[in-house]
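Key idea: predict the complex, not the pieces.
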Amino acid sequence: MQPYLVVVLCIISSSKADINNKYFPESFQFGAAGAAYQIEGGWNEDGKGESIWDHFLHYNNPTSKVIDGTNGDVACDSYHNWQEDVDNLKKLGVKLYRLSISWTRILPDGTPYQVNQEGIDYYVNLFKALKQNGIEPVVTLYHWDLPQHLSDFGGFLNPQLADYFAAYARICFENFGPYVKYWMTINEPTSTCGMGYSMGLYAPGYTLIDGGMYQCAYVTLLAHAKAWHVYNDEFRAQQGGKVALGLVCSAQMPLDPNNPKDQEAAERSHLMGCASFGNPVFVGNWPQVMIDRIAAKSKEANYPFTRLPVFTQEEIDLIKGTSDFLPLNYYSSSLVEYIDELVGFPPNAWFDISVVTSANKSWPQAASPWLTSYPEGLRIILNRLNKDYNPSEFIITENGWSDTGELDDQGRITYIQAHMSAILDSILEDGVNVTGYTVWSLMDSFEWTAGYTEKFGLIKVDFDDPQRTRTWKSSAKYYQNVIATRCLLNQCE
Ligand code: NOJ
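Result:
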């Protein structure tokens, strides 16, 4: 054999050896995901009210908020093209479609005062079509598009929002419950609280760096819990679905695995990130390290109270146990380095944590600056959450790769193949009950501050074409084959 051929064969077999070549269990459900503001468009049609993202991008200099100055006014125009979306889902062969409801499409000002029947009909038609095609909707009640009217009341800074959210949830359960078995209350609160209420990068754009994020976290947890109790008390017996908070988590690994200081910093980074929402829901209350550190840092900064809202025992009990499954968004992981305590003014969440995180230089880089590929991290975090929270089931509700839109998107194939392989390892070798995977995303869509510059879709959308034509990429064909064969390679053993 020619030496170069040996080398080529070795590369092929070693890269394949990394990918699990076993079959996904028959019960495992493949799916795809998207979210209302990112795909629907129709921002003011048929009675829809204004959301904070509509407001944020209409009343600010657009390029100061979004890199290409765009917005979600039309996006993929799924408000009109939803039947084509369902056709594509069917052709892919998925059994799950994760989507979110636009709060202001069904309650124009967010309050239960006025229900917009046209908005209700839009989702009922969509759910019926999905069900007719054997596709189970996984429905997020809140994927970041708060009614502007409720934001004017303080949004996630005002604890009364929890009651508005529970009332909205009740209307969704009443109208859509017969079609929906998986509900996610709120998507990725770490992102929306941090970016929206501390860093000012997402709507509503507040830069309350000393405590906005914590107050938002507190109100988010109350809102989630109240909605869960509405379902539990009024709908579960009849509808038999599951309700959960959507977490985004990653492996936080010590930069130097042998350095106890880095180990402690990595643990702290996990507890003050992922577990800041996971613990209240699965264990009860914030993680102790979070309570202690924020109290100490507040004191150092002359606050006669802690900047982290203190839960009453009644609130702890209300929130604890309110997750019927664990919807996990996973993209990448971090190496965490211990540093001396950061001090300065005003106090803020970064000083409270006081660690430095980075990606390993060998991890492949996506178009999004924050996204690198480390599939093993998914297995690590699944094991960790399984041990700490022992949920009845996990669904990987987001996982995906951004590029600049190429149709032959080999980078996306490599990423999703490796991550699905890690999931299969978790199921088969670690005994973690992962029951489904909804890849992010079904199609290219509005990527928040990155506008339309970063593409996550299996399906390309032509945003210059008024029809918003959809074209399958190589990754869609690859995924279709995985779904049909339940195997990540062309042929499994
Ligand atoms: C998290 C969000 O839930 C989703 O809206 C976003 O598009 C993806 N991650 C990619 O950034």
